[in-house]
Write a structure and sequence with these properties.
The chain is mainly beta. The chain has one domain: Beta Barrel (M1 Pyruvate Kinase, Domain 3). It has 3 helices and 11 strands, in the order E-E-E-E-E-H-E-E-E-H-H-E-E-E. The strands form 2 sheets. A 7-stranded mixed beta barrel has the order 1-6-5-9-8-7-11. Strands 4-3-10 form a 3-stranded antiparallel sheet, with no helix packed on it. Helix 1 links the parallel strand 5 and strand 6. The protein is globular, with a radius of gyration of 14 Å.
Length: 153
């Protein structure tokens, strides 16, 4: 099953606004380059290096809330289209030619989402609509439009 990469975003510091990008390097050390959340730190898990959500889920949330929010409101790193994101740890997602990510679990939405837009937090909860978390297995450059593949284990 394959789809497309529609969006790339990062935030340089906690609570900083998301920066939308056309392309980025994904590395073992930083997740999406220069993203605060993905940086590997001594004693800290790499479980949450990259967050990924589907445009299909985001559009359902927008319809439910009756609003047109930028996808970066969710504060995810990657926006994909045309694939079902795995709902279990251990499956893989490849992006472009060399970037490989291992799914580590659900990206559970937190109540801070309601700071972004009232009602966003509960709208993200059903059916993993908040997306998935991943660790970087193999880094590489990614660019909007890249092919995204899901590899079930």
């Amino acid at each position: 099953m394959s789809g497309r990469l529609l969006g790339i975003a990062r935030r340089p510091a906690p609570r900083a606004p998301m920066e939308a990008l056309e392309a980025a390097d994904v590395t073992l050390e930083t997740g999406v380059a220069d993203c605060f959340r993905g940086r590997a730190r001594p004693g800290r898990s790499t479980r949450r290096q990259v967050s990924i959500m589907r445009i299909e889920d985001w559009e359902a949330i927008e319809a439910e809330l009756g609003t047109g929010l930028a996808w970066t409101t969710r504060r995810a790193n990657l926006l994909v289209q045309g694939v079902r994101l795995p709902q279990r740890a251990g499956d893989y997602i490849t992006i472009g030619g060399s970037c490989k990510l291992e799914i580590t679990g659900e990206c559970d939405p937190c109540r801070r989402m309601d700071e972004q837009h009232q009602g966003l937090w509960p709208a993200l909860i059903p059916e993993w609509r908040g997306g998935v978390l991943a660790r970087v297995i193999a880094g590489g450059p990614i660019v909007i439009g890249d092919i995204v593949r899901v590899e079930a284990t």
